[in-house]
User: Which sequence fits this backbone?
């Protein structure tokens, strides 16, 4: 096993591997969400790599930003307001619109407070009744 060299905080290794890593902002879903100002900035490989050795949020971010070979993004369901009904009682409902030229309708989603701001970083389980934060 080896350490993933495109890791935040490993700047000296990134300099050694000049041209192999890049920074990219990450948002899931890639929709315009009213009240959500911050997006995560990722350090990811320029071209997809095997991600068998990545786990947790690093795997989620890298696979969902197209940085992994043969590793699907585990985020399938975007958070809608009715997701995880017994969790996050202090949730804030907000309006989301799709980006680009898709024909999806605007929808109601939710944000939760985190680190003095708001986040939508919730993994929605297949049942849509339970959620897990992924950062």
Assistant:
């Amino acid at each position: 096993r080896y350490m993933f060299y495109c890791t935040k905080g490993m700047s000296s290794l990134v300099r050694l591997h000049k041209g192999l890593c890049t920074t990219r902002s990450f948002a899931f879903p890639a929709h315009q969400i009213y009240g959500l100002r911050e997006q995560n900035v990722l350090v990811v490989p320029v071209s997809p790599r095997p991600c068998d050795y990545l786990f947790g949020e690093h795997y989620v971010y890298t696979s969902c930003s197209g940085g992994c070979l043969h590793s699907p993004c585990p985020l399938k369901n975007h958070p809608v307001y009715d997701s995880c009904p017994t969790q996050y009682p202090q949730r804030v409902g907000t309006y989301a619109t799709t980006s680009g030229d898709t024909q999806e309708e605007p929808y109601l989603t939710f944000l939760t407070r985190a680190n003095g701001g708001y986040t939508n970083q919730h993994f929605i389980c297949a049942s849509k009744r339970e959620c897990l934060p992924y950062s």
Notes: The first strand starts at residue 21 and ends at 26. The chain has a mean pLDDT of 79. The chain has two helices and ten strands. The first helix runs from residue 11 to 16.
